[in-house]
Amino acid sequence: MTDADYEQHSGDPDRLDGAEVRDGAAGKHRPCATDYDAELRLHNEVLRDACRIQRHEHVLDIGCGTGQTTRDAARMAPAGSALGVDISASAIERARELARAERLPNVTFDQGDAQVHHFLPGHFDLAFSRFGTMFFHDPIAAFANIGRALHPAGRLMMMVWQRHEANEWSVSIERALRGREGAALVPETSGAFSLADPTTVEGILVAAGFTSVTFTDVRGPVYHGGDVTAALAWVCGFACTSDALKRLDQASAASTLERLRETLSARAGDDGVWFDSRAWIVAARR
Question: What distance in Å separates the CA atoms of residue 202 and residue 86, rounded to the nearest whole number?
């Protein structure tokens, strides 16, 4: 998921009751930058290694959020540049603040939609994304637009989730939300899992003008918080969680919150709350 797909409950989950969730107390604010980056800390290392950014390269970060991945790219390309693009104005504002604080002269950020953003044609050596490409309304048009920003033989590298059933974090949260008899909440072909199927993704990228599409299996845990209380606050901010809870009456919401707490407690250890996950690194050439 992207930064823009996460919102976070503003209160204390230990005091959160069903009425608060139902009436919208959950999901009012975006998480701080460290939460999302902390969740994906291990994935970030894998993607950074796979990109193999060279010191003179010009790099485009799609769905950059608050810019950790963009700033990492800028440090790897001191004689080049890094541009981060995100649809969230508040995320871009924070990304710029962090880049100034870190004194990175070769990094810039644009607020915009990568599907239609006017990039400098043929400028970039690499376009990459950490879970920032799954929510395009028209993925073929979006990737074609990104492809036009790459020079001939430029490369695309993106990390996307594999199917819902392969991701313990998603399965566990869904089961807690729907209980024993509830309907499934996570369509396989939409949202965070829209790019889970390799055949579908290859078809999209080829139609958008890319070649040499490959998939690398990534297995690793995601971090949901230092303890159960922090993890519950984090999970209550997921769009799927807050939407589901707000549809329930007070008693049902309270029961669902207790199931969520039990689910998180089962995955808690001395180093925090972790869930297994599966992702793809998708690579292609322009």
Answer: 24
129 neighbors 62 (Cβ within 8 angstroms): yes
SS (H, E, C) 12-33: CCCCCCHHHHHCCCCCCECCCH
Number of neighbouring beta carbons within 10 Å of residue 142 = 21
Pairing of strands 58-62, 81-86: parallel
Domains in the chain (CATH in brackets) are 3-285 (3.40.50.150)
Q: Which of 18-22, 92-96, 235-239 holds the top average pLDDT?
A: 92-96
* Better pLDDT: 9 or 84: 84
Q: CA angle, 31 as apex, 25 and 34 as ends, to 5°?
A: 155
**197: part of which helix (H) or strand (E)?**
none
Residue type, position 53, single letter = I
- Distance separating alpha carbons of residues 115 and 111, to the nearest angstrom: 12
Neighbours of 281 (CB within 10 A): 20
What share of the chain in percent tops pLDDT 90? 75
pTM: 0.84
- Parallel/antiparallel/unpaired status of strands 278-285 and 211-219: antiparallel
State how far the Cα of 286 lies from the Cα of 284, in Å rounded to an integer: 7
Tokens at residue 286, please? 């322009």
CA distance 172 to 274: 12
pLDDT averaged over every residue in the chain = 86
**No. of H helices and E strands in the chain?**
11, 10
Q: Is 216 left (phi over 0), alpha (psi -120 to 50) or beta?
A: beta
- The residue among 63 and 36 whose pLDDT is bigger is 63
